[in-house]
Amino acid sequence: MIDKKLLSLLVCPVSKAPLEYNAEQQELVCRASGLAYPVRDGIPVMLETEARQLTLEEREQLGRQ
Question: Which of 10, 22, 28, 33 is buried most deeply by CB count within 10 Å?
């Protein structure tokens, strides 16, 4: 689980947009850049090289929320 205060301070290093926490996938997701950053042992890994590209389906689902 990510602390809500920490989450409010974190932004995507690529787009500088806010992030959303996906507890099921243990990732911080950026709608703007379409990247998902892993959270390992409760620590966000905010490196573009460690992020995965969201699938088209995942991006569409985020757009509906």
Answer: 28
